[in-house]
Amino acid sequence: MNDPSPLAARRRMIGYAQQDAARKAGVDRRTWGRWERGEATPYAHQLPRLAAVLKISVEELDVLLSRVPGSDPRPAPTSAAPSLDDLDTAVADWAGLSPTTEPVRALWVTEQDLAMAGQALATFRQFDHTYGARQNAGQVADYIERQLHELQQRPAASSEIAHQRALLTAEFCELAGYQAVDNGEPEKARTYYRRALHLTSVAGDRPYGAYLTAVNLGHLALHCGQPETALRWASAARSAAGTAASPLTRAAIAAVVARANARLQREDEATKLILEAEKLLDRGDADEPAWIRYFTHPYLADEAAHCLHDLGRPPAARGQLVDALHGVGPDRVRRRAIDAALLATTWVASGDLDQACAAGTEAVEYAARTGSGRCVARVTDVLDALRPHADHPAVHELLELTEAVLPAALTG
């Protein structure tokens, strides 16, 4: 069968399977496959080694890569000295030597490497909580594609290090997916979430995979208006996690199952699941994984409030929102903006315009401090509900404030 990729054709010409070529080039098979399909381009420092594997010059490799379907056009070859890498490989083969037989010890991935990446992840998460995704989503994506990609290419010092590396990369991809949702990019979120789920399988961490499936994918489905899908995914995660997952993990999963049921107007089931989540929260302890420790009673109050709002019970939702806003830290600006907006919506539903505008003012002020697309969307919903009452003094004042500090909310 003819392969449309010149890179794949050259590999086959010299008799290499994709796995063999990737190993000789010092990358994994998936990376090599992405090169052949034009989904990624080798870094400059990888070109000499890649040319040597394919037994061609760097200049000839440039021509091959420029012809890969879907790849970005490459600059014309420079008039540099001709490469001898192909001959170097031939000599190594003849002498029975292999430049890639044993990795240099100093390049192994160690606990220190992972600790530094973990500190970066914690910083990115804190920025995301405070400022929303728009400010640092690009930095997170760049960190994944550069620093973490480089860590993936180096050998791990032990099997435990390899396990931790896969899980850490999954957590980065989960954050990148969450930020994509926040920026209104569900397709990009799906790509990152798929990568994260694959890495949880590599790491063998079933509880974290269940968390991703229920909380991240479940909320994505709800965000896209597909509660049946959210219910199916979250229920499957709840069953798969069983009692092996920590209490907080199981509480967060139960809360998403409750959200999906509430969206489908199944009040009894939603109520039962929220109560179950409360009991699980009370059982949480210091051994909880770092990635779930954010899930506290104020966060559960937020989930319960959304359930009650979807069930058409604004007064009950308000009680939960007050608890959520009082309990969540001042650094969780995005969460406070979303909850204040929902609180304003409940007051609109109850016909109290002054209270709605007071909560709406808080939502606008919080949202203006973030780069969160979701916050803007929530404020827009509040303003749309209030617009028929634009002649009311408090509503008029809120619209003027929004125009001054958050004009994007006025345009939807």
Textual characterization of the structure:
The chain is mainly alpha-helical. α11 runs parallel beside α13. The two termini are 51 Å apart. About 8% of the residues have low confidence.
Strand and helix layout:
Layout: H1 6-13, H2 18-25, H3 29-37, H4 47-54, H5 58-66, H6 85-95, H7 111-131, H8 137-153, H9 159-182, H10 186-203, H11 206-223, H12 227-241, H13 247-263, H14 267-282, H15 297-310, H16 314-327, H17 333-349, H18 353-368, H19 373-386, H20 393-405
Task: List key phrases describing it.
412 residues, 70% helix, elongated
- Structural class based on helices, strands and sheet pairing: mainly alpha
What's the alpha carbon Rg, rounded to whole Å? 26 Å
Could you tell me the strand content as a percent range? under 5%
One letter per element, helices H and strands E, the order comes to HHHHHHHHHHHHHHHHHHHH
Low-confidence stretches: 73-106
Give me the number of helical elements. Answer: 20
Total E-strand runs: 0
Question: What can be said about the biggest beta sheet?
Answer: none
Straight-line distance between termini: 51 Å
Shape, per Cα inertia axes: elongated
Short précis:
With 412 residues, the chain is an all-alpha fold.
